[in-house]
């Protein structure tokens, strides 16, 4: 495993989750520092304890503000916090084991040591977080082993701290394993969710053209009619498409459909929808009255005329336009558009007809 200077970019959702988590950690520790300092007069904290709490509060306030105002600095802020956390864990443990015992020993401090692992799994990808956490844990074990094996260590202190040190190491190992397993399950969940969403999306797309299919268009049409706002439909059919298949083959015919779909996708206005209705028929849902739909249809015909297919040549369409009537059902609106389409076919094709 090698460390990557530029990890794979996070999705918007994952980035928001990780940034929010890091802000929560920084903010929570800042609040704890402020509360602790506010009661220190009653508990008679040492000067060193007060100084460390003040420095910790200032550091967290600075990093919190930086990350809040500059979301793009997430990784840099996270790595700075991670480096400080890891160094603090190891240095503080060494100092505690090599100074005269006080009232607190390892008790209060041991709980805060695990924050280094939490930050690692927030900031780093799962595998890198495991490697980093394992390195911190190995260094922690090295400090404890050196303390236990040092002939200069007070035998009474070695025995007295034996149980707290054992519990601390077991807690750290358990916490790393828990975070690693949680990340593994989270990754499985995200992949399953992505697959489910992709399958749900594909269920509403046409396989050949990539445009929304008849099912999705039907849902959009029903929703548009419910709003009561002006809505028109354009049902269009490729002219002489059977001739294309007979002359050039079905592969070219499929490519013509994709060619037209691409033009439709690029020409659709914001707020309008377009999809494949079936065969060589496409349906456009135009937010607007008859005039708006006529403009869209004429623009589409002009674009098709200016972009012939590389093998089949010029592609024309016949269009039937039907503006929705107040209270009209979807099937009635589509029936009128279909009648207008066939009127355009009877008029010689490459034409636009308006529904009665």
Automatic annotation (TrEMBL):
InterPro entries: Diguanylate_Cyclase, GGDEF_dom, Nucleotide_cyclase, Rev_trsase/Diguanyl_cyclase. Coiled coil: none annotated. Keywords: Membrane, Transmembrane, Transmembrane helix. The chain crosses the membrane at residues 20-39, 51-68, 74-94, 106-124, 130-149, 161-181. The keyword Phosphoprotein does not apply. It comes from the Bacteria. Residues 229-356 form the GGDEF domain. CDD domains: GGDEF. The keyword Zinc does not apply. NCBIfam families: GGDEF (TIGR00254). PANTHER family: DIGUANYLATE CYCLASE DGCM-RELATED (PTHR45138:SF9), REGULATORY COMPONENTS OF SENSORY TRANSDUCTION SYSTEM (PTHR45138). This is GGDEF domain-containing protein. It comes from Deinococcus sedimenti.
